[in-house]
Design a protein that fits this description.
About 40% of the residues lie in helices and about 20% in strands. The protein has helices at about 5-15, 45-50, 100-115, 140-150, 160-165, 185-190, 240-245, 260-270, 285-305, 315-335, 345-350, 360, 365-395, 400-410, 415-425, 430-450; strands at about 20, 60-65, 70, 75, 90-95, 125-130, 155-160, 165, 170-185, 205-220, 225-240, 400, 430, 450-455, 455-460, 465-470, 480-485. The chain starts with a helix and ends with a strand. The longest helix has about 30 residues, at about 365-395. Bound molecules: adenosine-5'-triphosphate and magnesium ion (3 copies). It catalyses: tRNA(Ala) + L-alanine + ATP = L-alanyl-tRNA(Ala) + AMP + diphosphate.
């Protein structure tokens, strides 16, 4: 089944259950000072849960563009290393605002997965909240009893507050959740590690696909819980992971969401993607790099299509860093010294613009912006090489100063791992501990200055001097973010 059909079937299924299909909210959030990027489907409905607004229908469904690169939900370091965490991904969701509750949410999830999509019941596991003594919260017996009717009890796993109690932040609606996991291991793979706990932390082939959150409490300012007058359902299913389960593959990157991009990267760079290699293998880095580039291209393209260009502040800076990360992986592991990532936009656009037309209407802008960024960062990398060369020449012995390496990184944006690679090629080392200490000092400084975390809601103060005020519709071609000084 093609990914496009998988997405449509999800929406059609919930439409048949009287949900209204709504569009994805932008991935880059413009009007909420507490949140920079959408990191879950429910973000755009926050006010309904809080009782501050009324939805047009108390049952909604959509696919939401999400980005998890900062705050509580930061998967950046996982991307490319594993095969199921992305920076940008789609979260399929269905919502009940004070309407149906656990029974329907559970039964419909099961019906969709096993009857509509036809996933083998024997490879599905579910988890239920086990309770939390410190909060005086009981286990979610109601969900357990509902699952028990459809799933054998040895496939119901109890989960703690970390995994199975969802909170929006320090205050607000919250409640227990049930996750659905899919076990993609072959019989041989299972035999290798018998008796292993089947939760997604333990085996890369046992992956969480869907989270059903039952909002039945409100966390008050004094941190106590009270029952909500209305109960809500908030679900989120990883679209790319669902495609993996339905297309009979063992990696999100082997689904048709990613393969056209990967083939294109191979063609342009002459590199070969080895889906079975591990990041630690001698040539595994090439495949990591290809995954990173395919992933980051999506994050950056969707962000530019939303009107957020790379810049030196706030959300724009996050996007610039993601793009530079991709460029660096190409430079270091694929040995590509010319701009090439922009060439992938065409493929992405033709593949995804059915569901996200902004990728088509903004295509030229996306291409131009990425190309320009590639050009300028590749120049930085070139300059860094010259500077590094001078540092090496000025070094007595074979160990380069950690402060110098940090200076290259901090002032010129020259990445540590690239420095390390180049130095080792020339038989040099550097003072890693000194570099790390300097880096930590810098992190502490910037964290203190710019970031306060509050549960799922990340409070970021991007740059007090700038504020987003809307799109520029007058420029014709592009929806460019305009900022005004405040
Ligand atoms: P995980 O434990 O795998 O990190 P999660 O518990 O953080 O997932 P939720 O916040 O419950 O994820 O989000 C709902 C669903 O979104 C998950 O069940 C998963 O299918 C999907 N998802 C979450 N993070 C990612 C990601 N970084 N890339 C792709 N899909 C994701
Ligand atoms: Mg996670
Ligand atoms: Mg999880
Ligand atoms: Mg989860």
């Amino acid at each position: 089944m093609k990914s496009q059909d998988i997405r449509n079937q999800f929406l059609a299924f919930f439409e048949s259950k009287k949900h209204s299909i709504v569009p994805s909210a932008p991935m880059v959030i413009k009007d909420d000072p507490t949140l920079m990027f959408t990191n879950a489907g429910m973000n755009q409905f926050k006010e309904y849960f809080l009782g501050n607004g009324i939805p047009k229908n108390n049952r909604l469904t959509d696919t939401q563009k999400c980005l998890r690169v900062s705050g509580k939900h930061n998967d950046l370091e996982e991307v490319g290393m594993d095969t199921y965490h992305h920076t940008m991904f789609e979260m399929l969701g269905n919502w009940s605002f004070g309407d149906y509750f656990k029974k329907e949410a559970i039964e419909w999830a099961w019906e969709l997965l096993t009857e509509v999509y036809g996933i083998d019941k024997n490879i599905l596991y579910v988890s239920v909240f086990e309770g939390a003594k410190d909060e005086n919260l009981e286990m979610d017996q109601e969900a357990y009893d509902l699952w028990k009717k459809i799933v054998p009890e040895d496939r119901i796993i109890m989960g703690n507050k970390n995994d199975n109690f969802w909170e929006m932040g320090d205050q607000g609606p919250c409640g227990p959740c049930s996750e659905i996991h899919v076990d993609l291991r072959s019989e041989e793979e299972k035999a290798k590690i018998p008796g292993r706990d089947l939760v997604n932390q333990d085996d890369p082939l046992v992956v969480e696909i869907w989270n059903l959150v039952f909002m039945q409490f409100n966390r008050k300012a004094d941190s106590s819980l009270e029952k909500l007058p209305a109960q809500h359902v908030d679900t989120g299913m990883g679209f790319e992971r669902l495609c993996m389960a339905l297309q009979g593959v063992k990696s999100n990157y082997d689904t048709d969401v990613f393969t056209p991009l990967i083939r294109e990267i191979e063609t342009i760079t002459n590199a070969t993607y080895d889906k079975d290699s591990l990041p630690t293998d001698e040539n595994g880095k090439v495949s990591v790099a290809i995954r990173v580039i395919a992933d980051h291209l999506r994050a950056v393209s969707f962000s530019i299509a939303d009107g957020q260009l790379p810049s030196n502040t706030g959300a724009g800076y996050v996007i610039r860093r993601i793009l530079r990360r991709a460029i660096r992986y190409g430079f270091t592991f694929l040995n590509i010294k010319e701009p090439f990532i922009y060439k992938l936009v065409d493929t992405l656009s033709s593949q995804m613009s059915g569901a996200f037309p902004e990728l088509k209407s903004q295509k030229n802008l996306i291409i131009n912006v990425i190309k320009e960024e590639e050009n300028s960062f590749l120049r930085t990398l070139d300059q860094g090489l010259v500077l590094l060369d001078n540092v090496v020449k000025g070094t007595k012995g074979k160990v380069v100063s950690g402060e110098k390496v940090f200076e290259l990184y901090d002032t010129f944006g020259f990445p540590e791992d690239l420095t390390a690679l180049i130095l080792s090629e020339q038989g040099y080392e550097y003072e890693e501990e000194v570099f790390k200490t300097e880096l930590q000092k810098q992190k502490d400084r910037s964290r203190a200055a710019s970031e306060v975390k509050a549960g799922d809601w990340e409070i970021l103060i991007p740059n007090a001097e700038e504020e987003f005020i809307g799109y520029d519709h007058t420029s014709g071609e592009a929806r460019i973010s305009r900022y005004r000084k405040v």
